[in-house]
Design a protein that fits this description.
alpha+beta, two-stranded antiparallel sheet, about 20% helix, globular, binds iron/sulfur cluster, UCP006173, UPF0260 protein SAMN04488036_11183, Puta_zinc/iron-chelating_dom
Length: about 160
């Protein structure tokens, strides 16, 4: 497992409990990401009920060893539809975000889990807790969309 690719240095202690999401600076906002990679799994949405189903079919840019996007700064050249999550669009995306996603948790007024790297102080703790996509995905390239239903999973919690 690689070291934490997210800059969590010199942040104010437990800043996420002291400021609303809309007041976070860029480093604080990015540091909220726990590195689980679950938002990079493809989902299926029932057109009638709106229910969202998670699959193990990963976006082509995801590396499930690091659980990170391999092309994050230039990802929109390859995946134009990749969401840029911000405080002002969280309302419309929170419903499909993973249940353990820090952005969703804080949006719901819930605390971060002890395994969150900001709490544990270690990037690996999200993988050790078994809540990341570490070594559990199949490739979007090798899995035709018609077969995605066969890869529906429960979110690792
Ligand atoms: S689900 Fe949330 S916490 Fe996990 S990688 Fe995506 S944005 Fe980060
Ligand atoms: S482009 Fe990168 S950040 Fe966007 S869904 Fe794919 S792996 Fe995730």
């Amino acid at each position: 497992m690689s070291k934490d690719p997210i800059n969590r240095n010199k942040l104010s202690p437990r800043f996420w409990e002291k400021k609303p999401l809309s007041k976070l600076n860029e480093q604080e906002w990015e540091a909220l990401c726990d590195g689980c990679g679950k938002c990079c799994l493809n989902k299926l949405e029932d057109a009638d009920t709106g229910q969202v189903f998670l699959t193990r079919v990963a976006c082509r840019m995801l590396d499930d060893e690091t659980c990170r996007c391999t092309q994050y700064p230039i990802r929109h050249q390859f995946v134009p539809e990749c969401i840029v999550l911000k405080p002002d669009n969280l309302d419309s995306h929170a419903y499909w975000m993973p249940q353990t996603c820090a952005y969703r948790l804080l949006w719901e007024g819930k605390p971060l889990y002890d395994w969150h790297p900001l709490v544990s102080g270690r990037a690996e703790s999200v993988h050790e807790a078994g809540v990341s996509v570490y070594q559990m995905t199949v490739s979007e390239f090798e899995t035709p969309e018609d077969d995605w239903e066969d890869h529906i999973i429960e979110e690792p919690l």
